[in-house]
Design a protein that fits this description.
Elements: H1 13-20, H2 32-40, E1 43-53, E2 57-66, E3 71-80, E4 86-92
Antiparallel strand pairs: 1-2, 2-3, 3-4
Length: 94
Amino acid sequence: MTCFKGDGKHIHSSTVQALYDQLSNKLLAPGSEKLIANNLSNVKDCTYAISKESENVTAAKLTFIGLLDQLVSGTIILIRDNNSTWKIDDLQNI
């Protein structure tokens, strides 16, 4: 998984696409690329730590640091798809 961040004004379209590509089919929805771009433009840093790991499902604590140093933390669930690629499948408290 890769953490992405913006600069407060915009985020590069290739970054949005790269994050979008990490989402499972469950999280893909019309307009989600724009939503991702809007939300990430206010993130100056991001960290994560794996909390539970198994062969096909992993949980990680994700923390976003906003432009004004505010913290937003939650848990993300990653699943391994049919191509053995990890995809973000659920966002909890984010």
